[in-house]
């Protein structure tokens, strides 16, 4: 099962069989044996939501916390305030919301200088937490902050998120 915010395969590259790459500003929903992955999480946040009973999950690669006051052009899934509720809704089929758990990665301080841009990673993490709390989806693990990029992979059989970074190597959360 491959399901994306773009209703198709736009923005996805299959690197190896069963690996679904989630592009920047998009999200995807998949089922085991597939694996969801996204690369280059700097100030962006990778949000994973997993149902341990059905071995189904979603991953979003959000760029910004919320839409600005200006007209939103392009994919609205790049905003945490939009991607999180959409993923939870799509994963809640059959009353499964109470089983969902989330993990967050990224949100680094990648920009120096301008305070609004410098804090975008922290604000992305805060908005993701806020949306998940509103939807009563517990955040069970995080690898956020710092000043380094990450690549993550959600294994839908176990819910383990593999985090890779040059700064800290490989770890599982």
């Amino acid at each position: 099962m491959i399901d994306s915010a773009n209703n198709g395969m736009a923005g996805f590259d299959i690197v190896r069989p069963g690996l679904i790459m989630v592009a920047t500003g998009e999200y995807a929903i998949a089922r085991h044996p597939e694996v969801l992955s996204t690369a280059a999480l700097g100030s962006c946040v990778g949000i994973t939501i997993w149902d341990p009973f059905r071995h189904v999950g979603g991953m979003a690669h959000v760029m910004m916390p919320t839409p600005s006051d200006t007209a939103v052009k392009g994919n609205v899934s790049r905003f945490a305030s939009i991607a999180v509720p959409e993923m939870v809704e799509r994963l809640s089929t059959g009353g499964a919301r109470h089983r969902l758990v989330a993990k967050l990665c990224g949100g680094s301080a990648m920009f120096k200088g301008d305070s609004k841009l410098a804090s975008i990673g922290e604000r992305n993490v805060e908005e993701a937490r806020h949306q998940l709390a509103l939807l009563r989806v517990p955040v069970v693990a995080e690898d956020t902050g710092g000043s380094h990029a990450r690549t993550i992979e959600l294994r839908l059989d176990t819910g383990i998120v593999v985090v890779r970074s040059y700064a800290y190597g490989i770890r599982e959360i």
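The longest helix spans residues 120-134. The domain at 2-172 is CATH 3.30.1330.200 (60s Ribosomal Protein L30; Chain: A;).
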